[in-house]
Amino acid sequence: MELDFKCSDIETWKEALSSYESRIESLNKPDLVSLDQFYRVNLPSLLHDRDPNPYLTTSELSQLMKWKLSRGKWRPRLLDFVSSLEDSVVKSASEKAFKSLPDISKAVKELTVLKGVGPATASAVLAAYAPDIAPFMSDEAMEVALGNSKDYTLKQYLLFVTKLQEKSKELKLKGEWDGPSDIERALWSCTVRSTKSQPEKSSSGKKRKR
């Protein structure tokens, strides 16, 4: 199914969201199903078990990066970068980021000091801890919500967050809806469903951390 971002029918959004797990499975990528389980279920639980001072470890960041790259485009150097980070550095940066919420701009800046971590990866970290505030900055959802999936700046992410938060609030007025992260997953599911049979275009241009 196609999903127009302007759509205000909550049942249409729920249908899109309900197809998420089957879309993950349909990609037939090694370990993606287990990585997605780790990212959406296990990692949030681990982080919240560490309240009131939640933090991320290097191992967890590495697994998160594997999930992000498996669900999107594989960029092996990013995985190498984050896997080589010292645990104390990752712990410190993530702890500061989580404490910065709900100031998303500050939280992203705290995380992007880490080598290999750009706004998109930072958004995945924040979404794991606070999915009701910060959605993951996926190419697919960015394309539908903003019409542009190639701008990975903090400014673009904040615009993306605002749009998804507003859409989430709109849907909550119509029925049961969790938050902006479910908007992202619904958009991703529909985009993957409509493009999975098409060959992926090769990317060009400058390499940048995401």
From TrEMBL:
Protein name: HhH-GPD domain-containing protein
Domain of life: Eukaryota
